[in-house]
């Protein structure tokens, strides 16, 4: 028997929380614009300054929306990965990759709780597995020896997360694929392959779109339309 609580069990948004959520979402849009604009304009210092704000603001937005704790944790682990990857050394890279990996585990648990098994699951699973094997096989010779196994293990978990995102529909599936693309670009750069310029812009734009689609996909599943506001009879009266 399935004992999972109903998906509509999230608390309704009060008007005050709804306003705070709108302000936080606007703040997220601003820091995304600053980050990507700085990369396009050739100001990496701006990117390094605002990068830690990106997922911290998104995590705060999820919290104000009353999102599941696992979803808040996924965003916080994304913030940890973003912060650690600001430091350009192998230890920080491995720790950052580990933080992102924990975020992927959170997403997998959320997909299992809120999602449904996609149609044609075996062909889709085979397609994702083929992409994983091909990418790792191509990158393996050009990766630093100390990063080969960690990158391969992380890629397996990332691909599993992207495949699991299919359980919540097309938009969330797109988020999983964009996360795959973003991290593939990072791996290609580590392997010293030629990647589309400006490299950091494409990494961050695909990554931020991925995180937003994944987060909103889970929130949509956990709070379907019509469940996002305080019922009319429970709202405080307002004098005319």
List the helices and strands and how they pair.
Layout: H1 15-41, H2 44-64, H3 69-84, H4 90-114, H5 121-139, H6 145-164, H7 170-190, H8 199-222
Walkthrough of the structure:
With 240 residues, the chain is an all-alpha fold. It is 72% helix and 0% strand. Helix 1 packs antiparallel against helix 2, helix 1 packs antiparallel against helix 8 and helix 3 runs antiparallel to helix 4. The N terminus and C terminus are likely disordered.
List its salient traits.
240 residues, mainly alpha, disordered N terminus, globular, single chain, disordered C terminus
Question: How would you sum up this structure in a few lines?
Answer:
The chain has 240 residues and is an all-alpha fold. The protein contains eight helices and no strands. The chain has helices at residues 15-41, 44-64, 69-84, 90-114, 121-139, 145-164, 170-190, 199-222.
């Amino acid at each position: 028997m399935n004992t999972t609580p109903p998906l509509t069990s999230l608390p309704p948004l009060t008007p005050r929380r709804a306003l705070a959520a709108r302000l936080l979402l606007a703040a997220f849009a601003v820091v995304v614009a600053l980050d990507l604009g700085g990369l396009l304009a050739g100001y990496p210092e701006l990117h390094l300054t605002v990068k830690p704000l990106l997922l911290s603001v998104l995590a705060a937005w999820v919290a104000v929306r009353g999102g599941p704790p696992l979803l808040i944790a996924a965003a916080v682990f994304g913030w940890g990965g973003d912060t650690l990857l600001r430091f350009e050394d192998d230890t920080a890279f491995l720790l950052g990759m580990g933080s992102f990996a924990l975020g992927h585990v959170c997403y997998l648990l959320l997909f299992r709780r809120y999602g449904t098994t996609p149609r044609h699951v075996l062909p889709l699973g085979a397609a994702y597995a083929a992409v994983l094997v091909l990418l790792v096989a191509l990158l393996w010779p050009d990766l630093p020896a100390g990063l080969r196994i960690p990158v391969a293990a992380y890629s397996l978990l990332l691909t599993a997360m992207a495949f699991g995102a299919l359980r919540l529909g097309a938009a969330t599936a797109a988020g999983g694929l964009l996360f795959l693309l973003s991290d593939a670009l990072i791996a290609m750069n580590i392997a010293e392959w030629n990647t589309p310029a400006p490299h950091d812009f494409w990494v961050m734009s695909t990554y931020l779109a991925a995180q937003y689609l994944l987060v909103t996909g889970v929130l949509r599943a956990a709070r379907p339309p019509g469940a996002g506001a305080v019922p009319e009879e429970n709202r405080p009266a307002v004098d005319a």
